[in-house]
Design goal:
With 322 residues, the chain is of the alpha+beta class. The chain is built from 5 helices and 14 strands.
Length: 322
């Protein structure tokens, strides 16, 4: 993931330099210019500032275009994976089939259903005012507060056309979660907390040390729980739970390890190891719709980039260069 982040940073820098050079070259310091243009140092600074601004939507457009292309690639890989075959050792792959547990069953904390994987999250929205320096105006800021979060996986394997593939890493569920009211889960959560060791508060994404230790776990038995152990009924809580049960059809996008015969964490990938649930037809349809959405988003950001460029050429030079 670090390599991918550096790559996108490099792309952004190149976009900034490209736009800045374009803006600068459109207004050369011609001796015959009237009125005379500002010095090169000033023009370079203005061009760089404009380049930084316009490069942002351009970067978003490229990232969404890339993501849409990735989803189309994954759809094609899913079709091939359903027919058999495994990726090369150490490469990213798509693994489809029913998943079966090899370890003890799990009980989902909120719904008390038997499963082999669960992820739950309880959160609420808070708004606060951020006053300006003169305290005459303020900006309302909205924050999502994670009250409780947890994940568990028992040793399990996907029965693919090419044979069983173990699931050996933390995964991100990419399917619609079940939602509950506070009254539906209050007692279940209290029971769950009686035998639970909490590892902190907030979200695992905000706890880098815990996240790294979980990603290094390769025995297929993974669990973490975060929170205070209590849910506040006075807040408007958003309560969600994902579960995977024995025999569910799933597709997992992740790195294949021939040595372990399973899906492992890939530190060089921009994506988390992702899991979707459903039949082959529904999964293909979901990926196609996902790709279409990203491509629409890319088109929208391209339009913003073009609008920003037009604004610079239409209003920037006239006010700065005269």
């Amino acid at each position: 993931m670090k390599i991918a982040c550096v790559a996108w940073l490099v792309i952004y820098v190149l976009l900034v330099l490209g736009f800045a050079a374009w803006f600068f070259l459109q207004f050369p310091a011609l001796p015959t210019a009237s009125p005379a243009l500002p010095e090169d140092s000033f023009r370079i600074k203005v061009s760089l500032i404009a380049g930084c601004l316009v490069a942002l939507p351009a970067l978003f457009a490229l990232s969404m275009l890339y993501t849409g292309w990735q989803r189309l690639q994954e759809r094609a890989q899913l079709a091939r994976a359903s027919e058999g075959g495994l990726p090369a050792d150490g490469k990213q792959g798509v693994f489809y089939g029913p998943i079966y547990r090899n370890g003890p069953p799990l009980i989902a904390p909120l719904s008390r259903r038997s499963c082999l994987l669960y992820r739950y999250e309880v959160s609420h929205i808070e708004t606060r005012s951020n006053f300006g320096k003169n305290r005459t105006s303020d900006v309302t800021i909205t924050d999502t507060i994670v009250d409780a979060e947890g994940f568990a996986l028992t040793p399990s394997a996907i029965q693919t056309s090419g044979g069983p593939i173990k699931l050996l890493t933390l995964v991100k569920p990419e399917f619609r979660p079940d939602r509950f009211s506070f009254a539906q889960v209050d007692e279940n959560y209290k029971v769950y907390m009686t035998n639970t060791r909490l590892m902190g508060c907030g979200s695992v994404d905000a706890n880098r040390s815990l996240l790294q230790s979980l990603l290094k776990d390769t025995d297929g038995a993974i669990r973490y729980d975060l929170g205070t152990g209590m849910l506040d009924s006075t807040k408007s809580l958003l309560i969600k739970e994902h579960i995977i049960q024995h025999g569910d059809e799933v597709v997992v996008f992740g790195k294949y390890s021939a040595a372990t015969g399973g899906i492992v964490y890939d530190p060089d990938s921009i994506w988390d190891t992702r899991l979707r649930k459903g039949s082959l037809g529904s999964l293909k349809k979901g990926l196609a719709l996902n790709a279409f959405g990203y491509l629409l988003g890319a088109a929208a950001w391209c339009a913003v980039t073009m609008a920003g460029t037009w604004v610079f050429f239409r209003f920037g030079p006239s006010s700065v260069w005269g």
